[in-house]
Design brief:
Blueprint lengths: L1 H21 L6 H7 L11 H12 L4 H5 L4 E9 L5 E8 L5 H10 L10 E9 L2
Antiparallel strand pairs: 1-2, 1-3
Length: 129
């Protein structure tokens, strides 16, 4: 009887390990940003390189952040509407020193091509002195 219970326990644990190893959690915005792939860049004219260049060009470093040498990455979440407009902007990660508000302002300036459907995206905005 003891051998029978041991075999059943081994089978159950093996099947649980197989299911657990096949599960991959959804990617977080930070993981996507570190991988270097921005899904929203598909809808931006010129692709990801053009999107990042526009963000870097449009940033006006806040005086308080510059004075206090605040650097880092802010992540802005938004909904890309069917017509290419942006709505529901929210700050998912802020560094401080006014950088979050600047990241919101810069992302709000972005103009996307109309994807034909509505979807939620996030964009990392890097601040470096």
């Amino acid at each position: 009887m003891n051998v029978k219970h041991t075999l059943i326990a081994l089978l159950v644990s093996a099947s649980t390990m197989a299911v657990a190893s096949s599960f991959t959690p959804p990617a977080t915005p930070a993981a996507v940003a570190q991988a270097g792939k921005l899904p929203v860049a598909v809808h931006y004219p010129g692709g990801q390189d053009s999107l990042v260049a526009h963000l870097n060009r449009s940033i006006q470093y806040p005086a308080m952040a510059k004075r206090n040498r605040v650097m880092g990455q802010c992540i802005v979440g938004f909904v890309l509407n069917e017509d290419g407009s942006i709505s529901n902007l929210k700050l998912l990660k802020e560094v401080g020193g006014g950088l979050g508000q600047e990241a919101l302002r810069v992302v709000q300036l972005l103009k996307f091509n109309a994807p034909g459907y509505s979807q939620q995206y996030s964009v990392p905005v890097n601040f470096k002195l």
